Amino acid sequence: MSRKEKKAHYGHDPRMKGFTLVELMITLVILGLILGVVYRMFSSQEHFFRTQEQVSATQENLRATVEYMNQELSWLGYKVPGVAVVKASPNDLIFRANIPNTGSAIQYVRYRFDNATNTILRAAGANASDVDTADVIMASDIEALSFSFYTVQNAVVVIKI
Question: What confidence tens digit (pLDDT) does each residue in 94-103 have?
Answer without folding.
Answer: 888 887 766 6
